[in-house]
Amino acid sequence: MRILELGPGIRPHLSDKDEIIHLDKAPLPHVEVVMDLNRLSPLFGGQKLPFPDESFDTILAIDIIEHVIDVVALMEELHRVLKPGGKLEIRTTNWKTANSFRDPTHYHYFTLESMDYFDPEKPLFKTYGHISKARFKVKEAREDGQEIIFQLEKQPASH
After folding, report:
1. Domain 2-154, CATH
2. Calpha distance 2→97 (Å, rounded)
């Protein structure tokens, strides 16, 4: 399996059986790709992730999405580089905890329904789905202590 891990910081996921590419804005020893995800926003250059379409089976976004200015641009790029049916795991600080607001580098706060904007089967998508071409099925959205965990599956994009 080919996995992309966003923002691993000093604790990267490692595997003997899977190929894991680590992307971070800091040039840490285990980071293969150095990139600031805020550069994905059209406001800051509109860059693309440096990978071909449908490159990864799984993407791990552990404690990173809250630090990204343009969540929609990020989701669209993650959708682009995931294989059809690929898995996206997001973990973020639960909006109702002090940890969410304590960190001055957090731009966004998420609820269990935040990813519903990208799932065509959800009511929020039916009203606001026009915000993005990225489509994901929300397989799981749950609170886990101080965190919220999302398990998403890539669906075909809209045109």
Report:
1. 3.40.50.150
2. 33
